[in-house]
C-alpha cells in the first residue's frame, strides 16, 4: 500500500470555522484512496466555515464506533461516515439520531438502520460493468464502453474472479455489475472460469486486503494452472487487490509481455497507475474523490440549513431497513492511452507523480 498509519486514531481538527463541528469517519489510512477522500472532505468543509473532526479507524470496527461516539459527545452537528463494516453501526447511529445529528453514508452504504439520512457514492453497478469492460477490452472482445468488437477472437480465455469484502455493500454491486457483462460470454464458452469459483462468497477478499488476494491467487495458480495452462484475465475490484494479484503472478513465473493476463482495478491509486504504464495492470476505474467529497459536503450543508439535499437515485440503495436517498456520480475507465487526459489534465495526479 502506498500509505500507512503508525496506528491509532488519526485526527484532523486543526483549523476550521465557527459554523460548528462536523465529524468525518474514514475506514483506514492503509489505502491512499481514503486519505484523499478524508483530506478532500475536510478541506471543503473548512472552506464552508466548519470545524472538522477527521478520524481514521485503521479497519478496526470497535475503534470506528468509539470515534463516532466521541464525535457525538463533542457536539458534532452532522456525521459523514465511510464505514468499515456497514452492518455494525446501528447502536451508535441511534445515539446520533437521539441527538438529532444527521448522518451521511460516504461511498459505503450503512446497513440495517433507519438512522442514515443520505448516501453519496458512485453508480457502483456501472463501476462493476466498467471493470469487466476493461478486461474485455484488453482481451480484444469489446470496446471500453462494452460494445462488442466485430471479428473478436473466439477464445476460450481463462478468467478468474475476485470480489471485495463481504461486509462492504459496494462489493456486491461491483461484482454483480461485472458478472452482468461477463455471464453471456461465460455461457457462450468465450470465457472460462477454470476454478469454477463464480459466487461472490467464493471470491471475496476480506477488508479488500492485497495480501489476502495474493494468497488466493497463489492458491489458484497452484491448483488450476500447474498443468501448463495460463490465466488470461483476472477481474480485480480494487487496485490494492490488483497489486496482490500481480505479486502472486510474478512469484509464479509470469512475466509482462509473455502471456501476462489482463487485470482490472479501481481507484486510480498512484502505484497502480504506474503499473498500468508498465503493463502489469491493464486498467483501473477512476472515481474522483474531489467530486464525491463535494456531494457529501453539500448534503451536510443543506441539512444543517434546513434544506433538502440534491439526490438522483431513490430506488436502488435499500439498506435492509429503508431505501436511502442517494446521489450517484459517474466513473471513468482508465487505461494506458488515456492516463494523460483523465488523470493528469484533471489535476488528480501530475505527470511527475505518475512517471516518478
Tell me the series of helices and strands, N- to C-terminal.
EEHEHEHEEHEHEHHEHEHEHEEHH
Q: Proportion of β residues?
A: 5-15%
Number of H- or I-type helical stretches:
12
Average pLDDT rating: 94
Low-pLDDT windows of residues: 1-15
Protein structure class: alpha/beta
Largest sheet: 7 strands, mixed
Helix content: 25-40%
Number of strands: 13
What is the global morphology? Answer: elongated
Query: N- to C-terminal separation?
Result: 17 Å
Instruction: Describe the strand arrangement of the main beta sheet, using strand numbers.
Output: 1-3-2-4-5-6-12
Rg over CA atoms, rounded to whole Å, is 21 Å
Structural notes for this entry:
There is one protein chain. Helix 1 crosses helix 10 (289-304), helix 2 (61-73) packs parallel to helix 3 (90-98) and helix 7 packs across helix 8. The model is unreliable at 1-15 (pLDDT under 50). The chain has 356 residues and is α/β, with parallel strands linked by helices. It has 12 helices and 13 strands. It starts with 9 loop residues before the first strand and ends with a helix. Helix 5 links the parallel strand 7 and strand 8 (191-192).
